[in-house]
Write a structure and sequence with these properties.
It contains 17 helices and 24 strands. The chain has 550 residues and is an alpha/beta fold. The longest helix has 18 residues.
């Protein structure tokens, strides 16, 4: 099926001006003074104060310089020595895809025992209305996960859907399988097979992605427009509380694009979003892009179409030849890819398969028409070699990394020395590659309520210790300045917005975070205790911590 999306967006005019040009003719709405302003400008300057008018910073400097711009209408804010940084970016987020399975259904966040899951489901089944499907949130962690038989113990008549992740993992009982038209004789959904046990019975496990998501969404009640917008609003609120002011929202299907566009039209966004569009019918990605009729970036500094990603990817969901053809087509149409580049144990592919195949396709596209200034992405690449990095640098690629190495990851067959240098941030920077950091957000669990906290990942890049405190590639440690750039100015460059956001400078959008401590000087082990006292987007406060004066 082909999709056509009608996305309305207005380009925001942003003018840049120098400090010397500021004066009484451009009186600030607010002045923030007596702080430690970590500007993240090219010199990584530290200042005392800044002024905001409308959505922009209009002056940065000493207290005396900036205060001189005030008149009686200017709001004066004493920072009382607090550190201020530019707004943070989550450069690999899934607000929509994770959020839609967190806000409705039987709450399973934190569940780690099958008996607990079954007890909650029994109560829901007992209260279910005729014809109603009982379904769960994500956020549970069971090993092994529930099966059809486990759910049939609760009911074989009421459809039960246990949702395991934003990619549609989980389990269905017999009634849910029947409702979807899936039987032992017809163990398929949209052309994808479902797993059977040794006796030939369906296990209840959904098929692979994207059919798994399509199956889950077919069984669950449809979202109303109001519920979609409430879900987005809740996700933005949670991110603002973490100091996040911008996200790259990846793998968004057309429904999500329409919802975000409505929020932009209604001026309800409190995050700046750069979207990576994806289509359920991955084989028709090029045709769907052609229907859109424009390239990227498209939109404004609140909402913009940024890339295609992170599916399909090679060799995981598309063989190398068709993926190379797709890369050529995207380049010719003015689009840029952001593919998943990592091992896939289920398919027997290695990290090098994904990295080399993707780079081969990028180089083919580059020979057809140079991509060196187009800032194409690679997502994840946790085991890149120096030779692969050389190829990346020649193509001017953006490297989007997450926290691989901080938490245990799936087993990969590689030499010990390569496994130990997982997530080689230092080497990426040494190769002059632009690196951006993100969370690959999956939602909260019993052990981690804020898996997208950027200060935890910041600490990992600096300290290179795992969640258990074990050294994890200590030679890949980077400075705090480099780590902060990975979450501020580098993401702005990645989305072609380096002239309008990412730093605290005159003429840039006034996205900033007031912190509870100085992130740049506190003892290393205390970095993870950093949190926002207040978050501002476009000069407007979108979060204030309980008890905060800001």
């Amino acid at each position: 099926m082909r999709f056509r999306i009608f996305v309305s967006a207005c380009l925001l005019a942003v003018t840049c001006s120098a400090f010397a040009q500021q004066g009484k003719s451009n009186t600030p709405d607010a002045i923030y003074f007596n702080g430690k302003i970590v500007t993240v400008d090219s010199a990584f300057s530290i200042r005392q104060a800044f002024a905001v008018k409308g959505e922009e910073f209009i002056a940065v400097g000493t207290d005396a310089q900036v205060k001189a711009l005030a008149d009686k209408s200017t709001r004066m804010v004493d920072l009382k020595g607090a550190a201020v940084i530019p707004g943070m970016a989550d450069n690999h987020d899934h607000l929509w895809n994770a959020g839609k399975y967190l806000r409705q259904g039987v709450d399973m966040i934190g569940v780690i025992y099958l008996s607990d899951m079954q007890d909650r489901l029994r109560k829901a089944v007992a209260a279910a209305k005729p014809g109603e499907v009982v379904f769960t949130t994500t956020g549970w962690r069971l090993q092994p996960g529930p099966t059809r038989k486990d759910l049939d113990e609760i009911s074989k008549d009421v459809p039960i859907v246990v949702v395991g992740s934003r990619r549609g993992t989980g389990a269905l009982n017999s009634a849910a399988l029947k409702l979807a038209g899936i039987t032992n004789e017809n163990p398929m959904f949209m052309g994808a097979p479902l797993r059977k046990d040794p006796s030939g019975e369906l296990t209840g496990t959904p098929p692979g992605y994207p059919q798994a998501v399509q199956l889950i969404d077919k069984l669950l009640p449809p979202w109303t427009l109001a519920a979609e917008e409430e879900m987005i609003a809740k996700g933005m609120e949670e991110r603002n509380a973490l100091g996040i002011t911008s996200i790259r929202e990846l793998a968004v299907w057309p429904q999500a694009v329409r919802a975000f566009t409505r929020m932009r039209q209604q001026e309800k966004l409190t995050l700046r979003l750069a979207l990576g569009i994806e289509f359920p019918d991955q084989a028709n990605t090029a045709q769907n892009l052609a229907l859109l009729g424009y390239g990227v970036p498209f939109g404004d500094h609140w909402l913009r179409m940024d890339s295609v990603g992170e599916e399909p990817w090679t060799p995981g969901t598309m063989q190398t030849k068709p993926w190379t053809d797709l890369a050529l087509a995207m380049n010719r149409m003015g689009w840029r890819p952001a593919p998943h580049v990592n091992a896939d144990p289920a398919r027997g592919t290695s990290p090098d398969d994904a990295t080399n195949n993707t780079l081969d396709a990028y180089e083919a596209a580059d020979r057809d028409s140079s991509i060196k200034e187009k800032r194409w992405y690679l997502e994840h690449v946790p085991y890149a070699t120096s030779a692969q990095m050389d190829r990346m640098a020649k193509l001017g690629l953006i490297i989007s990394i997450q926290d691989a190495g901080f938490n245990p990851s799936f087993p990969v067959q590689l030499p010990k020395d390569r496994l130990e240098r997982i997530n080689p941030v230092r080497e990426f920077l040494d190769h002059k590659l632009v690196v951006i950091g993100g969370s690959d957000y999956m939602g909260p669990t019993a052990t981690n309520q804020e898996p997208n906290n950027p200060f935890v990942t910041f600490h990992f890049y600096v300290a290179r210790r795992s969640s258990e405190g074990i050294p994890a590639g200590p030679d890949e440690s980077i400075s705090r300045q480099d780590a902060l750039r990975i979450f501020t100015v580098n993401p702005a460059y990645a989305t072609f917005e380096e002239k309008v956001k990412g730093a605290i400078q005159p003429g840039m959008l006034a996205d900033f975070v007031v912190l509870n401590q100085d992130l740049m000087t506190v003892p290393e082990e205390r970095i993870v205790l950093t949190h926002p006292l207040a978050t501002f987007v476009g000069g407007k406060k979108v979060y204030s911590a309980k008890g905060s004066e800001f």
